[in-house]
């Protein structure tokens, strides 16, 4: 075994080249030169005394021996990676102070943070819900989750989590028994509920019903969380989405009144530009991005 591990870098180079079917892509992935990957592969072939690739003018294909070796090496490297990640996960420590927009804070992020802390027992996370976007370098905040249009104006390192794809929805008891989805009657008879201004409903009507000025009517709430609660209580129809409103849609508290959907915005996660790469904030940020990728949305 120890003799084999002497060739660990060569095995990594082979696995990457085999998976990508390209020496150049493997070099980019491993952050080394094309010649380094080629030399690793040749060294591995010399040691095993078999060709692992069939080389053509501008491409490579796995040989029969290479096809046999690839899945076993990939499996072995994954075991090594998982073992190291598990030790890191249990040993990483620190405190992360999080500020989040109210809707995502209560309807998605709180539970995710609970799961994260169970997996990272030495990292403490403190979550506060607030509409305003704090200054990450002045307000004792390590990580912010908010709408894209608010974070793009901040001096932070921020990345997308998932979008809000909005469709009309209302409380089930508010919808008439003879209701038909996508029917104009629902848009006329049920009042509109807005969050933080009327621009989102205006966007929806501009896209699907340009002649209507109904977007200019209805109650305006200060944030999305309040607007969703108002819709659940039967006050009117809100532009809901399948992620933030997942629980209410699944339970039947909210029902779609129209299938037509617009992209309202994205949620982003932000940290300070100068955050050390091994900090707890980076660990949480990367974990949240991975969790967001599990949601069913189109980029």
UniProtKB/TrEMBL annotation:
<comment type="similarity">
    <text>Belongs to the LysR transcriptional regulatory family.</text>
</comment>
<keyword id="KW-0238">DNA-binding</keyword>
<dbReference type="InterPro" id="IPR036390">
    <property type="entry name" value="WH_DNA-bd_sf"/>
</dbReference>
<dbReference type="InterPro" id="IPR058163">
    <property type="entry name" value="LysR-type_TF_proteobact-type"/>
</dbReference>
<feature type="domain" description="HTH lysR-type">
    <location>
        <begin position="8"/>
        <end position="63"/>
    </location>
</feature>
<dbReference type="GO" id="GO:0006351">
    <property type="term" value="P:DNA-templated transcription"/>
</dbReference>
<keyword id="KW-0805">Transcription regulation</keyword>
<keyword id="KW-0804">Transcription</keyword>
<dbReference type="InterPro" id="IPR036388">
    <property type="entry name" value="WH-like_DNA-bd_sf"/>
</dbReference>
<dbReference type="InterPro" id="IPR000847">
    <property type="entry name" value="LysR_HTH_N"/>
</dbReference>
<protein>
    <submittedName>
        <fullName>LysR family transcriptional regulator, glycine cleavage system transcriptional activator</fullName>
    </submittedName>
</protein>
<dbReference type="GO" id="GO:0003700">
    <property type="term" value="F:DNA-binding transcription factor activity"/>
</dbReference>
<dbReference type="GO" id="GO:0043565">
    <property type="term" value="F:sequence-specific DNA binding"/>
</dbReference>
<dbReference type="Pfam" id="PF00126">
    <property type="entry name" value="HTH_1"/>
</dbReference>
<dbReference type="InterPro" id="IPR005119">
    <property type="entry name" value="LysR_subst-bd"/>
</dbReference>
<dbReference type="Pfam" id="PF03466">
    <property type="entry name" value="LysR_substrate"/>
</dbReference>
């Amino acid at each position: 075994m120890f003799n084999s591990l002497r060739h660990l870098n060569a095995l990594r180079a082979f696995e990457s080249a085999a998976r990508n079917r390209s020496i150049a892509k493997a070099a980019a992935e491993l952050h080394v030169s094309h010649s380094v990957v080629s030399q690793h592969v040749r060294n591995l072939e010399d040691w095993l005394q078999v060709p692992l690739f069939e080389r053509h003018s501008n491409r490579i294909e796995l040989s029969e021996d290479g096809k046999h070796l690839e899945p076993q090496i990939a499996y072995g490297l994954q075991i090594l990676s998982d073992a190291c990640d598990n030790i890191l996960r249990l040993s990483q420590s620190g405190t992360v102070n999080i500020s989040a927009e109210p809707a995502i804070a209560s309807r998605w992020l709180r539970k995710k943070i609970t799961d994260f802390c169970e997996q990272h027992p030495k990292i403490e996370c403190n979550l506060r819900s607030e509409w305003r976007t704090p200054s990450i370098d002045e307000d004792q905040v390590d990580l912010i989750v908010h709408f894209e249009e608010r974070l793009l104006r901040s001096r932070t390192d921020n990345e997308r989590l998932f979008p809000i794809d909005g469709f009309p929805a209302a409380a089930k008891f508010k919808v008439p028994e003879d209701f038909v989805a996508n029917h104009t009657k629902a848009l006329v008879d049920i009042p509109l509920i807005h969050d933080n201004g009327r621009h989102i409903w205006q966007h929806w009507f501009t896209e699907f019903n340009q002649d209507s000025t109904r977007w200019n009517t209805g109650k305006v709430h200060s944030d999305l969380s309040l607007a969703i609660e108002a819709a659940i209580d039967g006050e009117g129809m809100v532009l809901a989405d399948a992620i933030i409103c997942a629980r209410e849609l699944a339970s039947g508290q909210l029902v779609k009144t129209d299938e037509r959907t617009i992209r309202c915005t994205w949620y982003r996660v932000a940290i300070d530009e100068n955050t050390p790469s091994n900090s707890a904030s980076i660990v949480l940020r990367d974990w949240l991005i991975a969790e967001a990728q599990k949601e069913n949305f189109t980029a």
